[in-house]
C-alpha cells in the first residue's frame, strides 16, 4: 500500500457556492434575553455568518493547515466495505527511538484537534519522550472517503486505524483519543493488543462501572466508604448536566441521522450553529476566535463526503448496542479535565482495569488536545517517560535518544 502526499485544495466553485448560500441565509427570531439557555444565540451566529461570508479567508487557513500538517492519502481495505481512501497526518520525530502514537478524533472534531499537540509530541528533549504521530480523518470526516454500506461500526473504525499503522511500518504502537476517538482507540486496544497495541491513553475516561457487591466486594465497600473528591463531584455534576440538557443532539444523530443530514449538507448557517453550540458548551471557557471556529466548521463544510456523513457513526454504533465497558489489558492512562461532558468516580475506572497513570487537571473540557495541549501532552510525557509505569511499553521505543 502506497501513501500519496495530500494538499487541501478546495475548488473555487465551492467557495463561491458557500458565499452564495451564506448570502441567502434566513435566521430565526429569538426571545428577549435568551442567552445560551435556548441554544446558540442569534447575535453570535449572525456575526459568524456575516464574517464567514465577507471577512473570513479560507485560503489563508487552508495554506496554514497545509504548511503545518504533513498530509497523505492511503487506501485501506476494510472487511465487508472494500477499499477506502483515508486522509491522515503523519509527523515524525528526529528521535530514533520515538514512540509511534495513533491519535483519533471524534465528533464534532477532525484532524485539526491534533494541530497543537503535534509539535509538542514530536519535539526532541532529554527531559521527556518523543513520538511519531499519526492522526487520521475518520471515514466520512474531513478528507477521508465515507463508507457507502450499512454496518460501519467500532470494529471497522478500529480496523482502519490499525491497518494504517501497519501500512506505515508501525507494528507496535500506542494510542490516544477522546470522544469517539476514545471508544475507537479502546476498541483498537481490545482487538489488537497486546501484540500490536502496547498502551492506551484517553482524556474521556467515562467507561468505568460501579463495582459489583458480590463479585467485587472489596472494591464495592471501598467505593461506598470513600468520599468523592472535588474533581469527582465536578465530573458527576457535569455528567448530569450533559444527560439533562446537552444530549439532545445524540438522540437525533443516533436515531434519524439522514433527516438531520439534509440541514447540515444544505445550510452552512445550520451546520455552524449545530457545531458551534458544542464548541462553546463542551469547553472550559475556551476563548474561541472567529477564525478558529470557522476553520473548524469549514473542514466539515468542505469535507469529501459532506457534513452529513459524519453523524452516521452515532446511528451505527448505538443501534448495534456495542459494549463500552470492557477494559483493555494493555497499560491505560487517564486524564481528567473538569469540563469533560461525562465522568464517573475514579475508582470505577480503576476497577478491573490496568490503569498505570492518572492526571487530574484544574481547567479544560472535551477538546483537551485543542484547549489544553500542554496539559494533555504533559500527561503523555509522564506516562511514557522515565519513571512512568508505561516507560518502554513499546519494545525498543523509549522516546529518548
Automatic annotation (TrEMBL):
One Pfam family in the UniProt entry: EHN
Keywords linked to the UniProt accession: Aromatic hydrocarbons catabolism, Hydrolase
Gene3D superfamilies: alpha/beta hydrolase (3.40.50.1820)
TM stretches of this protein: none
Record domain Epoxide hydrolase N-terminal: where: 4-113
Protein family per UniProt: Belongs to the peptidase S33 family.
PANTHER family documented for this protein: EPOXIDE HYDROLASE, EPOXIDE HYDROLASE 1-RELATED
The protein, known as: Epoxide hydrolase N-terminal domain-containing protein
Species this chain originates from: Hohenbuehelia grisea
Amino acid at each position: 500500500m502506497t501513501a500519496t502526499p495530500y494538499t487541501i485544495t478546495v475548488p473555487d466553485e465551492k467557495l463561491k457556492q458557500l458565499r452564495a448560500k451564506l448570502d441567502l441565509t434566513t435566521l430565526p427570531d429569538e426571545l428577549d434575553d435568551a442567552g445560551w439557555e435556548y441554544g446558540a444565540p442569534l447575535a453570535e451566529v449572525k456575526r459568524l455568518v456575516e464574517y464567514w461570508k465577507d471577512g473570513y479567508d479560507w485560503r489563508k487557513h487552508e495554506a496554514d493547515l497545509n504548511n503545518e500538517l504533513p498530509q497523505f492519502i492511503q487506501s485501506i481495505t476494510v472487511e465487508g466495505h472494500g477499499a477506502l481512501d483515508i486522509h491522515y497526518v503523519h509527523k515524525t520525530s528526529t528521535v530514533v527511538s520515538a514512540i509511534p502514537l495513533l491519535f483519533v478524533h471524534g465528533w464534532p472534531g477532525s484532524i485539526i484537534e491534533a494541530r497543537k499537540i503535534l509539535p509538542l509530541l514530536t519535539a526532541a528533549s532529554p527531559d521527556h519522550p518523543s513520538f511519531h504521530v499519526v492522526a487520521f480523518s475518520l471515514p466520512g470526516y474531513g478528507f477521508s472517503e465515507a463508507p457507502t454500506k450499512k454496518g460501519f461500526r467500532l470494529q471497522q473504525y478500529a480496523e482502519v486505524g490499525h491497518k494504517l499503522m501497519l501500512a506505515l511500518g508501525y507494528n507496535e504502537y500506542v494510542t490516544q483519543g477522546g470522544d469517539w476517538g476514545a471508544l475507537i482507540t479502546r476498541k483498537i486496544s481490545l482487538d489488537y493488543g497486546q501484540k500490536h497495541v502496547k498502551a492506551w491513553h484517553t482524556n474521556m475516561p467515562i467507561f468505568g462501572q460501579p463495582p459489583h457487591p458480590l463479585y467485587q466486594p472489596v472494591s464495592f465497600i471501598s467505593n461506598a466508604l470513600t468520599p468523592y473528591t472535588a474533581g469527582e463531584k465536578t465530573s458527576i455534576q457535569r455528567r448530569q448536566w450533559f444527560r439533562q440538557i446537552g444530549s439532545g443532539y445524540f438522540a437525533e444523530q443516533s436515531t434519524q441521522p439522514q433527516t438531520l443530514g439534509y440541514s447540515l449538507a444544505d445550510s452552512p448557517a445550520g451546520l455552524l450553529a449545530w457545531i458551534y453550540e458544542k464548541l462553546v458548551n463542551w469547553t472550559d471557557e475556551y476563548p474561541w476566535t472567529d477564525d478558529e471556529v470557522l476553520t473548524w466548521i469549514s473542514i466539515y463544510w468542505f469535507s469529501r463526503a459532506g457534513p452529513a456523513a459524519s453523524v452516521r457513526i452515532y446511528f451505527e454504533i448505538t443501534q448495534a448496542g456495542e459494549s463500552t465497558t470492557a477494559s483493555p489489558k494493555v497499560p491505560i492512562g487517564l486524564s481528567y479535565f473538569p469540563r469533560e461532558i461525562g465522568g464517573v468516580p475514579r475508582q470505577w475506572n480503576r476497577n478491573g482495569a490496568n490503569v498505570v497513570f492518572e492526571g487530574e487537571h484544574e481547567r479544560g473540557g472535551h477538546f483537551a488536545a485543542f484547549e489544553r495541549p500542554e496539559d494533555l501532552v504533559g500527561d503523555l510525557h509522564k506516562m511514557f517517560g522515565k519513571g512512568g509505569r508505561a516507560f518502554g511499553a513499546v519494545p525498543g521505543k523509549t522516546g529518548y535518544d
